[in-house]
Write a structure and sequence with these properties.
Elements lengths: L11 H13 L22 H9 L3 H70 L4 H9 L6 H12 L8 H26 L6 H35 L1
């Protein structure tokens, strides 16, 4: 089959494109057939050749455009991947920070529970050191020894806790523990200083106060223990 070719009717570039089309379709272009109009020429089936005719661009120019578009798409893809990786790293960092905060909260709650439990044991022991009026008189007169230093040490350790570093649930509990230990110490010190002026009613109030403060601290320790369990479950 010989494909008609009439280069005097078309641009040279069009003839080259036609030659490529003819070669792809097994058509020979070795002979020229004159007298054919443009409409009589065979239809080019190759989409690239059709684009070349429509846009007046050569196939090499179209290839350059396709390569440029591909490069832009590759760059956009690389940017999208980089953004996605950055978001994933940011999310991982936030998750790690939250985990560290939960762990720190758990450790703070455990430390407070240990300190409060120690304070409770000390208050119970101190309350047993004053079972009656005579024990107060003997301590005040120096016939019995009572270690106020232990109460002050525990009280100082509780006061040393930085409230601004604690979760809000623990701030209230720390303040309660500190207030309980302080009131317990002040009650005993006041009784030692004024034991000669105290009557039976005064001693009764003293012993009731010491017992009540110990029970109050026991309830506070139970609340702290609940916070510890909750923090451990969240972690």
């Amino acid at each position: 089959m010989v494909a008609p070719r009439q280069c005097n009717d078309f641009k040279e570039v069009d003839c080259k494109i036609y030659d490529k089309w003819a070669m792809l379709n097994g058509i020979s272009t070795n002979h020229y057939t004159l007298g054919l109009t443009f409409e009589q020429r065979p239809t080019l089936g190759d989409p690239m050749n059709q684009l070349c005719f429509l846009s007046n661009l050569t196939s090499s120019e179209w290839a350059a455009w396709v390569q440029a578009i591909g490069s832009i798409a590759a760059i956009c893809g690389a940017v999208a991947i980089a953004v996605w990786q950055s978001k994933q790293q940011h999310k991982a960092s936030l998750d790690l920070l939250r985990a560290e905060k939960r762990l720190a909260r758990t450790e703070l709650a455990k430390a407070l529970l240990s300190l409060s439990t120690g304070a409770l044991r000390l208050l119970d022991h101190s309350a047993k050191a004053f079972p009656d009026r005579q024990s107060v008189h003997d301590t005040a007169e120096g016939r019995r020894y009572f270690d106020f230093g232990e109460l002050r040490v525990v009280e100082g350790a509780i006061q040393a806790i930085s409230l601004h570093t604690l979760p809000h649930e623990l701030v209230r509990l720390v303040m309660i523990v500190n207030s309980t230990v302080r009131q317990f110490r002040e009650n005993i010190e006041f009784a030692i200083q004024t034991h000669r002026q105290m009557d039976a009613d005064g001693f009764t109030k003293l012993f009731d106060a010491l017992t009540g403060l110990s029970k109050s601290l026991a309830l506070t320790c139970a609340d702290i223990e609940k916070e510890v369990r909750r923090a451990e479950n969240e972690a």
